[in-house]
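INTERNAL AUDIT FORM
Audit reference: QA-55
Scope: verify that the stored structure record matches its stored sequence.
Auditor: D.O.
Record contents follow.
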Amino acid sequence: MDSKVEEIKAILKKYDQEHLLNQYEKLDENHKKRLLEEIQNIDFELITNLYKSTKKEEKNNKDEITPIEYLDKYKLNDKYKYYESIGKKAIKEGKLVAVTMAGGQGTRLGHNGPKGTYDIGLDSHKSLFELLADRLKEDGKKYDVTIPWFIMTSKENNNATIAFFEKHKYFGFQKDKNIFFFTQGELPMIDTEGKILIGEDGFIKLAADGHGGIYESLVKSGMTKKMKEMGAEWVFIGGVDNCLVKMVDPVLMGIAIDKKVTVACKSVVKDNPHEKVGVFCKRNGKPNVIEYTEITEEMAEATDKDGELLYGESHILCNLFSVDAIERMGANPLPYHVAYKKAKYIDKNGNLVVPDSPNAYKFEAFLFDAFGTVDEMAILRVKREEEFAPVKNADSAGVDCPKTARELYKKFHKID
């Protein structure tokens, strides 16, 4: 152990992170071992470069942003049945699996536990997880197949999520046969001086690496290999907080297969030109999503000859990928985006610091940054009221909250 400690001390000295062992001698043997393992798992070169990126002044963005083509699901006419038949055949042949991103906690909703365990207030008191399970099983029955379900947790909520599923007998799925759990990656949080933070528990302060980490997590956890062994070719990826998510959509699959694209995404038209959502576009000729903070007022309000917004297709985290595309995208980490957050930490004297304003950087990758690695992708506009009822905020926000999601869910399922 002593030689290992000396080795780690040398690494920490090289990267000016020696403070990570300040409280080491006060820990018991198990805690010492865990802290050393955590330090060994840190990519210090990456952290150094990420810190440097927080100091760079934003360059003038000279990217060429142009509109992207899309198909409207309800204006396909004769093509609807054509695409649907192609998708149905693939689904019946077991070529589709579903992935739910469920790494978050329900903190913003006042819920103590994984977000997927949250009850949105229906008379049935079903959790988000159960609502998604019901829809997935129901859709599977239509095609006489069980759609395997992969759930991405975080280290923070993995144990609680699995315990919840165990308690509910996996909602009719069979663990390690047609339901699987894997965790998303994490990166250390750093302060404004580039020092890695120690959390309240005495270990490295880690934060999830964003939904863009899903490709790498699927590959590293062996899940894409498992999918291929099952004969799957397509993966639907959606979020746990959308209680109307339609993971099994033969039309979307049919379009992807027919057009020979490896990525197909769903969109809903913006509520208004200035709705705060990311929208699909082409960036330097490649598919992409532009954040609402990047779009000019003129672009936001621009319309085509039919009066449709040129940048009106909202990205709603409902995406279909070929397994091969995920493996390619997971081979190299995506660029990280920096977020300035409030983070409690243990200072060099062993005292807990509770900040009242942002004090630390966390780094996240965005799923849509991988879109630029493909030449073409298909976008299918669907109806918001049929497929998009997210639960992101407390009811006091009035939008994307339990109340609005509950109303949309009840209306769609014709529940009084």
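Auditor finding: record pair retrieved intact. DSSP finds 13 helices and 18 strands in the chain.
Action required: none
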